[in-house]
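Q: What would this chain look like folded?
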Amino acid sequence: MDLSVEISKYPLADDYIPAIKDFINRLNATDGISVVGNTMSTQIFGDYDLVMSVLTNEMKRSYEQFGKAIFVCKFIGANLNPALNPHGDN
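A: My prediction, written as structure tokens:
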């Protein structure tokens, strides 16, 4: 089963940019998932079990390394990667 996730990270710290960049860089370094970023969120696409495992590990690591943060996520049980369907056609 494929999964698409839109995630935004809001570190509860004055120096928040390093925590966000580290999280996104770790997602980008993961084989088997696709990561698309923009100025408001990051989208992750791939196999359900892999994506959820990566998010579990990287969110935990983020909390341990950078402290408090809020993660806001949306999940849909399909691969909506725009690279696979750039015009949104069905």
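The CA atoms of residues 8 and 72 lie 5 Å apart.
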